[in-house]
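Give me structure tokens for this 493-residue protein.
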Amino acid sequence: MRTNLRRLLAFALTAAMITAPAVSHSEGEALTVKDIPLKLKKAYKNENEYNPLYTQRFGADPGVMEYEGRLYVYMTDDILEVDANGKIKENSYSQIRSINCISSDDLVNWTDHGKIRVAGAAGAAKWANNSWAPCAAHKVIDGKEKFFLYFCNGGNGIGVLTSDSPIGPWKDERGRALIDRTVKNCADVTWLFDPAVMVDDDGTGYLAFGGGVPEGKQAAPGTGRIVRLADDMISLAGDPVRLDVPWLFEDSGINKIGGKYIYSYCSNWQTGGNTLRMTDGAIQYMTADDPLGPYTYAGELFPNEGRFFGLYGNNHHSIACLNGEYYLFYHSRPVEKAMKISGNYRSPQVDRIEILPDGRLKSVVGTMKGVPQLKPLDPFVTVSACTMSHQGGSKVQGTGADAFVQTKEGSWTRVTGANFGTGTAGISVNVKSETGCTLYVTLDSADAPIAAQIDIPAGAQAVEITAPLEASGIHNICFIFDGEAEFLNWKVR
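Here you go.
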């Protein structure tokens, strides 16, 4: 039946809505994808775990921005490097010229907005060689919301891109670095990188940055800086101020919590014998009454991720607030481990921060469970196919509003905790397959009985196809493909 349907649909109007037949089983039969048979691609995280945030590619140094009830996470685009024999090499970071962006309002299902082309000839900032450790902010300027994406040009400067949307497109209004070694008080910063941005209650922006350990100065490196930004957020309103940060290594953070300014950072790897009880490669924090300091050491927020997950490496974080709760975003190496490779290729994770009654931040325990889903997903509105909690064998191509899921035989995605309410009649998908293939929809898990079968006709244009689907209450929903397709979006009816 499937072959005949494909032949008929190949001659149909591809722009029109197509209705697929209901799934038909023999009495007592519960057909699954294993019965087809179809072998599912490997998932790189466990079914009931929500860290790392995504697994379709790597992403390090998470910089997090809240906007209209969503958290947007911008990340260094770790890409696999291989030698002449095809063997995975240690990550040199030298090939990184893009920034990854994902977002979520429930902290379990993340919409992948694709790669932002930043550095090099194909990027927005053609003067830059690399794009590391991003951070982002938004601010109303001249009555219009604008977005600002800061990034490192390797270890030698910081640039900024602007947009009218948190997902781009992005442009380089300055056409040059915002901070380089010609800026006052920056020539002696070992690593001129790792920006962190904050917009204060009065609309003033601040940028913290810097790192590195000059020889013999591990206890007081003197390489941290913070500067007030001009009203336009893409120029400076003063000279960078030196921060006295004990045992600084890298990874600045700047937040305002409970009326106090919080400067956070990663300690270096030579903290032995310190009197502050800090450990190597851990996230520390300091407090102040003024964003420019002076800051006083307050405690260790997060030990090195190797303490929890076994693989040690650089520790890079962001503190973000959503709905009055605070979260620590960091990176670890679980996808690398699941792929059975080693090269310091990193993936983003999140765990909750508890604010103690006296205002101190309780030390965070890193978990693979992550945080509970904040609210059910609404499947009755159009959902990007790039929204998922789990996946196997799927890739996200395109960027911003044009991102889509690229599938192959056995690839799949899962959305967690969709609320189907009192019941649904069907599901519509927007999808394209030049060769034709079948999409199977299951509820709760990928190996559950098939709830809907959608035969996608061969064609060069995307089609919207509706199939019967009966569901009520809260379920996971899985989309499983037996061939190559471009999956754009879906909704239930």
